[in-house]
Amino acid sequence: MGIALPKTIVEGRNRMYVLAAYAIIFGAGLPALVGRWWFGNREKTKDGVNARSAAAFFKGISEDSNIDEVTATLGKSFEWERPKTSKQNQELDELEKQIDKTLGPKWRTLKTLAEVNSKQNSARRRAFILLYAHLLRLPVASSSLRDGELSL
Amino acid sequence: MTRDISRWVPLSDHARAEQSDMLLQTPTLLSSLLNITTSRNWLVPTLAAMHLHAYLAQALLPGDTSLKLAQLPGIKVSESRELLNSAVSVANIAETLKSKGDSRAVEIKKAVSQWGSIEIVDASFKGMMNS
Description:
Order of helices and strands of chain A: HHHHHHHEH
Oligomer: heterodimer
Shape of chain B: flat
Low-confidence stretches of chain B: none
Largest sheet of chain A: none
Number of strands of chain B: 1
Low-confidence stretches of chain A: none
Structural class of chain B: mainly alpha
Number of strands of chain A: 1
Largest sheet of chain B: none
Order of helices and strands of chain B: EHHHHH
Structural class of chain A: mainly alpha
Helix content of chain A: 55-70%
Number of helices of chain B: 5
Strand content of chain A: under 5%
């Protein structure tokens, strides 16, 4: 009885290559696969949110948190949920100006609650502005579309 | 309907896609937040998180009750305040708009017929021992 293996694997002069292939698969590939699964799992809670967002919820909410504080805490979590955001922030400045005009001093209070700082946490700031643009029903238009309409 | 284009804030397609992605993520985040508050038996933040869910869905400013009518189809935020000031409520808005010959009345009547109301049939006090 024999096992049908390709001749190249069994041949003595190829044994170093066969050994190297084994080493790569079991020494690097398998640990990497298991590691990715293990650490990837640990990154998220069972609710499917980032563990750091959940920690922010845990710390940010107290027994008498009102809706503004809850909104601000939700805003904080986007820093970890969407860390890869674009760096184009000029358009956001205009949007923030509009929000500031509509909400007045309340916007500054909300920003303090969410600990939004324009220098640090650019991801958090971006998400918070976009969130309030939605809540205030600010009319946003695609910039390319708008330019097109203006030129008509 | 004419739109005053100068009031529109320009936003790139990328940022608009980002905004809608973000909003689609909020239900997951809010339910996680809700799990935390309910497990601690905290009423105020629990209610806040539940309300916020609806505020996000309706795109209304959290905590501003003068915007109640802006949940109805076609009603703008500014209109909601005006209508509430002239004593229009959810119950009579469809009639009021119909009498003005407003074309939105049909849709609004449909939405109002689905308006939720809570009926408490029984309440009891559950004591809790805090050690």
